[in-house]
């Protein structure tokens, strides 16, 4: 019996252990890279500073110390997507030579309420030293926003907050300017690919040769979402909900 995993990716070594294991989802590595690129675009000023050093935007580097103090919110311990999103988001920033200082991190199990509670604790410790918040998903990013709302910190004095997934609520937060940007996960496309793969397997097409045969791993691409283009993603979500 073929087994299809979706959304939560296995490591490729596990998928190779049996020839009837399949995976449909997105590339967690790509989501982290795109999130990092979105952040870098906001953090970096045009041109270089002295001795070729990067110039940081004063909108982000609020204390003007030449580095970005950040907090990261991770999904859950050992989750492959959480590991990849964190590694490649921060790795992309490092490739851009952006000086970083991690103040702390929160594991909030992808959950909005847990992220709000954790953010309240972190804010009590670091307060306005926090310049950037990187979240593994939109729900935790929204929990961070909830915490800042509860603390009553004005938008101008909040750090830039970034998510991943492009949920409908997350897209609305981008539209309102509460969430700086997110990375859209094409759940609709994944569902279509999952159905097509299941149909092919049920039809016995997996017995085909390597050329033209069924791929064991199907990954759909992510897309960057900012305030400038979030309307088109919201329109798609509205069409699908009708």
- Report the strand count: 11
| Number of individual domains | 2
- What is the topology, as strand order, of the major beta sheet? 6-5-7-8
**What is the number of helices?**
8
Specify the structural class.
alpha/beta
CATH fold group of the largest domain:
Rossmann fold
Which sequence of SSEs, written as H and E, runs from N to C?
A: EHEHEEEHEHEHEHEHEEH
Cα distance, first to last residue? Answer: 35 Å
Give the second-level CATH assignment, the architecture of the largest domain: 3-Layer(aba) Sandwich
What name goes with the CATH superfamily of the largest domain?
Answer: Response regulator
Residue share in β-strands: 15-25%
User: What is the global morphology?
Assistant: elongated
What's the story with the biggest beta sheet?
4 strands, parallel
> Radius of gyration from the CA trace?
20 Å
Given this structure, which CATH class of the largest domain is correct?
Alpha Beta
Contiguous runs where pLDDT drops below 50 for at least 5 residues: none
Helix fraction by DSSP (H/I, runs of at least 4): 40-55%
Q: What is the averaged pLDDT score?
A: 89
Pfam family, one: Peripla_BP_4
Family: Belongs to the bacterial solute-binding protein 2 family.
Keywords: Signal
GO molecular function: carbohydrate binding
